[in-house]
Amino acid sequence: MSLLELDNLSAGYGSFRALFDISFKIEEGEKHAVIGANGAGKSTLLHTICGLLRCEDDRVRFEGQPIGQMSPHKRVGLGISYVPEGRWVFPSLTVHENLLVGAHSKRRGIWTVDKVYELFPLLARLRQRQALSLSGGEQQALSIGRGLMANPRLLLLDEVSLGLAPVVVERIYDAMPAITTSGTTVLLVEQDVGQAMKFADRISCMLKGRIVLEGVPGELGQDEIVAAYFGV
Amino acid sequence: MTETPMKVERYTRTSRVGLPVAAVVIIAAATVPAWGSSVVTKQAVTFLTLVALAQMWNLLAGYAGLVSVGQQAFVGIGGYSLWVSSNKFGINPFVCVPIAGVVAALFAFPTAGLAFRLRGGYFAVGTWVIAEVYRLAVTQITWLKGGSGVSINVGGISRGTREAVTFWLALAVAVGSIALVYLLLRSRRGLALTAIRDDETGARGLGVNVTRSKLWVYVIAAFGTGVTGAVIYLNLLRIQPEAGFGLNWSALMIFAVVIGGLGTIEGPIIGAIIFFVLQQLLADYGTWYLILIGALAALVVVFAKRGIWGSIVRRRPIDLFPVRRRLCLETVCFPEDAPPPSSPTDLPPTLVKPAVVKPPGDGEVGPSEAAPGKLG
Amino acid sequence: MVWANDIIQGILLGGLYALFAAGLSLVFGVMRLVNLAHGDFSIMAAYISLVIVGSLKVNPFYTLLLVMIVMAVFGYIIQRGLFNFAMDAGPMQAILATFGIAIIIQNLLLEHFTADSKGLDAGRIENAFIKLSNQVVIGWFPLITLLVSVLVLFGLQVYLSRTRMGRAFRATADNQRAAQLMGIDNRHLYGMAMAFALAIVAIGGVFIGIRTTFSPSAGPLRLIFAYEAVIIGGLGSLWGTLVGGVVLGIAQVMGDHAHQGWGMLVGHLVFLAILAFRPQGLFARQAQ
């Protein structure tokens, strides 16, 4: 049984349909990247998994359990943690408090505040600072650390490179192995195709709400990917 | 490809029938003083003024998005203006009625100047506070005979005449308020209003002067409420600050509109009818009618937010008062009989079932638009 | 100096207003809801105390805990049973729903208890005072009210900054969708916020019932005072709310001193002046 399964999922916002018949599987321990241009539906995909967007109960299954109608906070309890596009740190709380809120669901696991500070030493230096005053890269580290505090089985990362300098992005991706060796499954949405290819075991490419290409980074050709990405 | 001639039309099938029917109803209603008893005539005035008040509140909240819990200020100002101009200046009390509207409109300017600094729930309470200030001020001013109340001087006019003319004034006010809202919405300013209601930022981007439009609506609603207040007190003949500026006026207006249907012209009329009927039926049970209506309003606003009229037209759109514009190509018009204007927070129906979407976060409420609510 | 007494009385009154304002502030901060029934809830609390006093013949102080519990439970139920759905429907719908509840409560109390003014009799403490000088007299009861108020605000502050739920409240106030992603059940949280707010306003209701009289229609005025205290102090700051209450209290006392019966009006005018010239309040925290 796959850890996460999407079964002919169609979803959208109001009268705007963003996803068309998506079928998708992720196995436990996998590192999966979803790439695609702006508006392809990548974030919408993650929203249906984390619960910000609801759908028919059976279209999204986590360990076989239908969760399409489940509210986001309950999914955290199951082990799904979503690190949002735009980071969404709590501006009036300190770095330390942000991390503590991440542990609200009280899920047990290896991730504690200290372990997160080990992973991102820059956060340790900033622990008493209000999250509002952090730079983009610092906020991204905080957001990921906060997501880890829920000790998730499945970590969803939405465009972590967005708006960040390449050097900063490198440092964030440097932290990835420490996250994945612990057994956490990671589903990552990225516009930066290079980073995605380096990181992932498997890659999916989306275009206009559909998955148009799937495969292992090493086996997919450059031309194939470009064609899928741009829809030529 | 030949050019298809296009027109923008307003009349729907139902409205072509609706307007003549309304005319007949109004003419029939005008005869009430001739055959109705004094009690009936006075009660009819109560009903008609309720319709007018509801229309004015609906104009504010349903079309301009201004939820005011302070319209009682203008009811009181209207009533007291009537007293001042009639008793102190000796003007014919019937002529005082439009004067009261003007006075109320004048007071609306500084009121708006302060209240418009607030948004949403804070605007609502702000208008309430300002109404309280008016009440306290009137209570304290000895020239207005303070808290003990005063009687309207209608000396010289026979009771029959007075009651009849008051009734016709009430009828004129009720019809006038409907006509006012109708004409306003058909105008360009009305189009701007619906744009503002649906998306304020978007409207601003299109060049609509949002503040000025809202101010206009506020002043017009104040005028209408003031005139209605004057007629109410012409009917009651006695006014005191507690009653004139009482919160119950807001309760009346709000419940009638909410139950009937916010953001439609037909809705407030239906709501007023329901309110009036319940009030009469439960007249022997103290304020239980208000409790019942309050509960009904709370449930309707949460679970059936289009109100009764809105729920009826949801299935089969009916437009008794055609305010929307439809595009017509030759003989076919779009939308044929369109659904009523959606309330500000309505989302379009989902295309794909059953993708359910929670409306995004927090509407702006509070004095400073940018400040997120923080604790501690 | 006569004004010194006015200021002291104003500060004492401000403590009471801060109790009303704290609940309003909490609810608005966490869920952006302006509860128009807030004042009526305080009156409801006073009547509950009255009923308990009537049947058990105890001093109103002893009813406090029970009244707080009753109001807290009621607050949780009405939030989850009605207001949460009202908020789903939209901000306008939420305000109107609270308005409906306000009218219902006022009239239910009117039907059951009549329009007569009632009072809670706390015995000798109501009139006991400390005399600092010939002009400055501090009543024991107002002093206790102020101390309780400061204690409550302090307790709330500590709760918000040190506990798991407190952090959850603040996180939800910042960004309720992000909070959900942390595992915070916001429907439950809103219920808890309303429960807290009503427990606090219950204290205020009982205290003001002891201090003066109350009647079914007295609610709206309490709401207005609470709201004015919040606006004067500035949104988002609990201690600002205390200051706002004090400013309002002082304005009212001085107003009454200057001309009997003008107290409330002066208070309103101060509020309107703040609104006109410094709408963000005295202590607004700008988070940009």
Topology summary:
The complex is a heterotrimer of chains A (232), B (376) and C (288).
Chain A: E1 4-13, E2 16-26, E3 31-36, H1 42-50, E4 53-54, E5 60-62, E6 65-66, H2 72-78, E7 80-83, H3 95-102, H4 113-119, H5 121-125, H6 136-148, E8 154-158, H7 166-174, H8 176-181, E9 185-190, H9 193-199, E10 202-207, E11 210-215, H10 222-230
Parallel strand pairs in A: 3-9, 3-10, 7-8, 8-9
Antiparallel strand pairs in A: 1-2, 1-5, 5-6, 10-11
Chain B: E1 6-9, H1 13-29, H2 32-35, H3 38-64, H4 72-88, H5 93-115, H6 120-140, E2 150-151, H7 159-186, H8 188-198, H9 200-205, H10 210-236, E3 238-239, H11 241-244, H12 248-260, H13 266-281, H14 288-303, H15 307-315, E4 326-329, E5 332-334, E6 356-357
Antiparallel strand pairs in B: 1-4, 2-3, 4-5
Helix pairs in contact in B: 3-7, 3-10, 3-12, 3-13, 4-5, 4-6, 4-10, 5-10, 7-8, 7-10, 12-13, 12-14, 12-15, 13-15
Chain C: H1 2-31, H2 38-56, H3 60-89, H4 91-113, E1 118-119, E2 129-131, E3 137-139, H5 140-162, H6 164-174, H7 176-181, H8 186-211, E4 213-214, H9 219-233, H10 238-258, H11 263-277
Antiparallel strand pairs in C: 1-4, 2-3
Helix pairs in contact in C: 1-5, 1-8, 1-9, 1-10, 2-3, 2-4, 2-8, 2-9, 3-4, 3-8, 5-6, 9-10, 9-11, 10-11
Keyphrases for this structure?
heterotrimer; B: 376 residues; mainly alpha; ABC transporter involved in vitamin B12 uptake, BtuC; three-stranded antiparallel sheet; two-stranded antiparallel ribbon; 6 strands; 64% helix; globular; disordered C terminus; C: 288 residues; two-stranded antiparallel sheet; 11 helices
Describe the structure.
The complex is a heterotrimer of chains A (232), B (376) and C (288). With 232 residues, chain A is an alpha/beta fold. In chain A, 34% of the residues lie in helices and 26% in strands. Chain A has a single domain (4-230), classed as P-loop containing nucleotide triphosphate hydrolases (Rossmann fold). A six-stranded mixed β-sheet of chain A has the order 7-8-9-3-10-11, with helices on both faces. Chain A has a four-stranded antiparallel β-sheet with strand order 2-1-5-6, covered by helices on one side. In chain A, a hairpin with a 2-residue loop joins β5 and β6 (65-66). In chain A, α3 (95-102) runs parallel beside α6 (136-148). The termini of chain A are far apart. Chain B has 376 residues and is mainly alpha-helical. In chain B, α3 (38-64) packs antiparallel against α10 (210-236), α5 (93-115) packs antiparallel against α10 and α12 (248-260) crosses α14. Helices cover 64% and strands 5% of the residues of chain B. Residues 337-376 of chain B have low confidence and may be disordered. Chain B has a single domain, classed as ABC transporter involved in vitamin B12 uptake, BtuC. With 288 residues, chain C is mainly α. Chain C has one domain: ABC transporter involved in vitamin B12 uptake, BtuC (Orthogonal Bundle), CATH 1.10.3470. Helices cover 76% and strands 3% of the residues of chain C. Chain C has helices spanning 2-31, 38-56, 60-89, 91-113, 140-162, 164-174, 176-181, 186-211, 219-233, 238-258, 263-277, and strands at residues 118-119, 129-131, 137-139, 213-214. The longest helix of chain C has 30 residues, at 2-31. Chain C is globular and about 60 Å long. The mean pLDDT of chain C is 90.
